[in-house]
Every structure is written in structure tokens, then in C-alpha cells.
Amino acid sequence: MQFQKNKEKILIVDFGSQVTKLIARRIRDLGVYSEIITPKSINKVKNFSEYKGVILSGGPSTVTKKNFQSIPKFFFSKKIPILGICYGLQLIAKLHGGKIKASKKRREFGRAYIFESKRSLLTKNFYRSKRAVWMSHEDAVTKLPKNFKAVAFTKSSKLTIIENSKEKIYGVQFHPEVSHTDNGKQIFKNFLFLICKIKRKWNVVLQKKRIIQEVKEKVQNHKVICALSGGVDSSVVALLVNKAIKKNLICIMVDTGLMRKNEFKYTYKIFKNKYKLNVKLINASKIFFKKLKKISNPEKKRKIIGKLFIKIFEKESKKYRNVKFLAQGTLYPDIIESKSSTGSKTSKIKSHHNVGGLPKKMNLKLIEPLKEFFKDEVRVLGNSLGLAKDICYRHPFPGPGLAIRIIGNVTIDKIKILQEADYIYINELYKSNLYDKIWQAYAALLPMKTVGVMGDSRTYEYTCMLRAVTSEDGMTADYFNFPKDFLDKISNKIVNSVKGINRVVYDISSKPPSTIELE
Ligand code: XMP
């Protein structure tokens, strides 16, 4: 990674947590730049005095075993404020003589409630009436290290926040970076501005100029093919790259047959007629259905779709002279959940279409101008580029499309059934003014058939599952609490209008432990 000379920055040491990038995100939201490194690359940092503070992330390791992941002790002699989160807290405690135990009694997953034991700069204005904090740990600190004090506790643990305020070392057992911690941002605010005393110097729109300039320099006179799907990410990429290189951009829309009803053609028209981009539409649905025949394993589906996608792009690119690059709307969370971009031990959850599916030997070089951004930051960029509101605020849609919303094998018939149900659901959300209150909503087709009765006849048809979640960035999510009236109306409408569905269920899981998509 490249280190910036800017002195108003924070160093994040990534021990492999699924949500480390969210720490960077929270810090950016507060207008501060940060850099993430792995414990292994600590020796690449030449000058620690460039940082105003250090954050140690969570991670899957445990300090209760030999050879645990650590940082050199000199970190603590630099007089730079340090905040440990989850594993980071346990590491701080371990390195200062505290005790940590793996304990079934003290482990906490999901929501816990926090209470103050002592006032601290770190918790100034933090506690609110809800007091909910998000936990994900098995190990817990059972004995305070020397010169540390307990700041807050939960029902299961007396040492949920600890501090050595003289040395400016702080540790929190919960994850203040996830949106389900009530007022977690305040912890970062206090750490940055009260403890590290850093200045705000970062914002999303300022990055726009930098990205356009970087694309210009990288591409020069070559041509770029852009994978335009009609979602906000690839749309923003197309507009950004268009600003940088104008007529050397060729946008390709591959109709996989796995998209939502009507959405694709509508987007094609907008980009062609309103933005006057060079867009080519390719109908590839036949080949996608052929390759997906009898495939029901989620990872296999993802890999097949991803590979086929790239193959089609490569084939198309050969029809133009001088094409060297492929522009994609890969985001920060896509990279984190497929493989940690910093190379640390993040566990793999899913192969994201635009990352995991890439063949090793690509003939095109990648341009991924959004890979440092989260979804809502991309929307801010979209707005500043004049992107149509209905595209800019469209719910996220996964690269593999409806194929990962049909559990089991994918057929044209199932796709048609699902498209109809999904169309009714999404339209009803618009009509009821609920669409913009929800981060992502979709219908899925479950692989089981059940018995129903319509008129006086027996039916034996599929089950449609509805999902709607609130989220800030897709990293964590809660199910949306629909009014009963809406659920009644939508269930009735889908069963009455979509032949092939005789039952509707609503998914009430949060992320974690579930994911937003089913596969
Ligand atoms: P999960 O299911 O991992 O989804 O909780 C988090 C967010 O990512 C979207 N998603 C994808 N987006 N390619 C994408 O571009 C993919 O392969 C992919 N898989 C999931 C998902 O819709 C949600 O917004």
C-alpha cells in the first residue's frame, strides 16, 4: 500500500476482522484519513510519528494460545494514543499483564447492553437510553492489567471498556464500528478529537477529482470496456471513466437473463439517450441458462456466472482495437468478504461475482475506481455526477442476479416466476412509500413445494421468501419491521397474481449471523 505524507492520519492494524474496513469508514465519515496495515507489514512503517493515533482491530485469533498475532512492544512507548477493539483490547490486556480466558459464561454474540463504571474521555456523550453494543467474542479479559481501570461493563463482563488514560491506551470489547452499536460513532469521535487531537481533512466529493485524474493517467490513449449493469456502482464507474477519457469508453451491458423484470432495458435507454454513452447490449441469457443447468451449489453458481461474464467481456473487447482495460464497480465490502485486501486472515464468506469469479490469467487489466468506497459514499459520488435519482438510490443488486435468489437449480420458468413476484413486491414498496426506508429488498424462490388451496382446488407450488433489510453499508443489517397491513397485502397480491407460488414467508434474520443474500 502507498503511505500518504499527510500528518493528520490514523494507523489501523488489521488482525483479520470481517469489519476492519468499517473502522476506516467511520473514521472517514468523521473527515479523517486512515491507513490499514497487517501486523506483518508493521516494519514497512518508517515513521510512526506521522500518525496521530493507532487502532488495533478485532480478529479471529486468540491470545490464549501460543504464537498469537501481536504488535511490537515499542508501539506503546511512542506516546501515540492507542485504541484496541475486541481482539485489539485483549491484545492490549495480554501485553500489559492482564488475564484473558476463553469462557462460555462470558462469551457474547450479537446485542449486549453496556453500563458505566467510571467516567472517561472515550465515553463522553456515548451512553444513550438504548445502550446497545454489538459483540462478537469468545475470549474475555478476566483480570485488569496493571495501571488500567475499568470504564464500562455488561451483564456478562466487568471489563467491556478499559483504559490507561495517562498512557492514552484504551480498549473496547464491543464493535463501535458496526451500525448496530448504538452511538458507536461517538467512541471514534472521542478517540480522534479528544484523545488524538487530530484535524478533519477528508471528504468523498474531494476524491472525485483524484479518481478522474488517476484513470486518465492510467489509461492514456487506450480504450476501456466498462461492465455496465445498471446498478449504482457500475453507473457511477461509467460516468467517472467517461469524464476521464470520453470517447475511449465502451460500455457493455450483458443481459444474463438473471436480472429483474424490465430494469435492464430501461437502464440501457437512459445511458444511451440521456448520457449519450457508447453502450452495447449483448443478449447472453441462453448461454447463462445452459451453463447453470442442474447446478445448485451456491459457490459453483457464483463462479460459473463470474467466469462467463468475464469471458464475454474478453470476447467483446477483441472486437475493438486498442482495448486494454476493464472497468468494474467493485466496492470495499466486495473485496473484504471475498478475501481480505490487506492479505490478513479474514475468513472467506462468499465469492463475489466481480472478484472471486475472475480467471487468474486475464487479458484485460482492471480499473476499479470504487474499491475504496462503501455504497452510500458511491451514492454521494453519483449525485455529484448528476446520476438519475432512481438509479442512484436503487437498492443494491448482486452480480450473479436472481440465480442466487433461486435456491437450488435455476431454470427459465423459475426465473419468470421470481421476476413477477419481485416486480410486484418492489412496486408495492414504492406505492407504500417504503422503498427509500429500506436498504435492500427482494423476493427469493425457495426450493420446496407445499400444498395450498385455491378456489376449491388443491395446489402444489413454490414458496416465495421476501427479504427487506435496513443497513448502512451491507456489512451488518437488520430485518425491516413491516406494518402487518403491508405484509397482508403483499402476500395476497403475490399468491393471487403469480402462477407457481402458493405461499409467502418473510425473513426475520439479521446480519450477522445471516447474510443479506441467501447464497
Ligand atoms: P451478503 O449476502 O454478503 O451481501 O450479506 C452484502 C451485499 O452485497 C451484495 N452482494 C453482491 N454484490 N456481487 C455484487 O456486486 C456479488 O456477487 C454479490 N453478492 C452479494 C448483496 O446484494 C448485499 O447488498
Structural description of this entry:
This protein has 519 residues and is α/β, with parallel strands linked by helices. The chain folds into 3 domains: 188 residues, 3-Layer(aba) Sandwich (Rossmann fold), CATH 3.40.50; 183 residues, Rossmann fold (3-Layer(aba) Sandwich), CATH 3.40.50.620; 102 residues, GMP Synthetase, Chain A, domain 3. Helix content is 30%, strand content 23%. The strands form 5 sheets. Strands 2-1-3-4-12-11-10-7 form an 8-stranded mixed β-sheet. The chain has a 5-stranded parallel β-sheet with strand order 15-14-13-16-17, with helices on both faces. The longest helix is centred in the middle third of the chain and has 20 residues. The two termini are 32 Å apart. Xanthosine-5'-monophosphate (XMP) binds next to helix 9.
Which terms would index this structure?
eight-stranded mixed sheet, 13 helices, five-stranded parallel sheet, 519 residues, single chain, binds xanthosine-5'-monophosphate, alpha/beta, GMP Synthetase, Chain A, domain 3, 3 domains, Rossmann fold
Apparent shape: globular
> How widely separated are the two ends?
32 Å
Ligand types: xanthosine-5'-monophosphate
How much beta, percentage-wise?
15-25%
> In the CATH classification, which architecture of the largest domain applies?
3-Layer(aba) Sandwich
Structural class: alpha/beta
CATH topology of the largest domain: Rossmann fold
User: How many strands appear in the DSSP assignment?
Assistant: 21
Main sheet makeup: 8 strands, mixed
Report mean pLDDT, rounded to a whole number. 90
- Give me the side-by-side strand order of the main sheet: 2-1-3-4-12-11-10-7
- What's the number of structural domains? 3
Rg over C-alpha atoms, rounded to the nearest angstrom: 25 Å
CATH class placement of the largest domain:
Alpha Beta
How many helices? The count is: 13
The CATH H-level superfamily of the largest domain is: Class I glutamine amidotransferase (GATase) domain
Helix content: 25-40%
